[in-house]
Here is the input.
Amino acid sequence: MDLGPHAAFIIASYVAAGLVVIGLIVWVLADHDAQRRLIKDLEARGIKRRSGPVPP
Amino acid sequence: MPLIDLANPTRFLALTARLLPWLAAATALAFATGLYLVWFKAPDDYQHGAVVKIMFVHVPNAWLAMGAWTVMTIASIGTLVWRHPLADVAAKSAAPLGAAFTFLALLTGSLWGRPMWGTYWVWDARLTSVLVLFLMYLGVIALWRTVDDPARAGRAAAILTLVGAVNLPIIKFSVDWWNTLHQPASVLRLGGPAIHPAILTPLLVMGLAFLLLFVTLHLAVMRNEILRRRVRTMWLMQAQEA
Here is the structure.
């Protein structure tokens, strides 16, 4: 595939988009794990919410 | 399930837990199809050559840059008028996603502009108004981090969001109202798209893929925000007991 004389600009655009999207996905998953861990930790210490445990 | 039931965060968590795997799969499928069409089917443009491939990431990100603020605007009305329990969660969760998509629209626009216009940046109405949008996203994110109480932060951020919504029509019509290097609207315009179907189809598929990505991530970030507020409530309960 010939991307012509401006190939670096095209590739840089797709690499940047890929990195940002992957970064967002990693951030969302890591944040989810962190919040779940905090809730488990607090529940293990006997702190319970009045409305019961958190669903999946 | 009636729509009003989604106002309950616990039901929202249960519903989205079932929905998210399907949305993630649909997003991956849409991206696979879109990228195949872009890299193996879409022809080069007669003026831009292969550089037109940048359009397939630039335009969907530009749409989402404005779309995320529109979601925040609607959610802000929900916060201020109806005090919907998930409205400020939705607004807060859309802000970092909107900032990321706006950043990508600016970056890919610059990378497209350099070979086509001979410059990465010009201070014209379209580029400047999108830069203002990006700064407004950062401002809203900063405001949320400044105020500790989510309810107070939500109301302040909602007002800022509604004020910032004035920028959306300025961005949209900037290419019509002022002289600019940026091309006028060629997809969302009166009279229909001005792009050949061979290029329009991959663009729309990539647009759908990015839209599905936004919906998926938005729901996931909203779930995280609900959990964060539960952690905060539990910490407060622990502090009261101590």
About this structure: Chain B is about 75% helix and 0% strand.
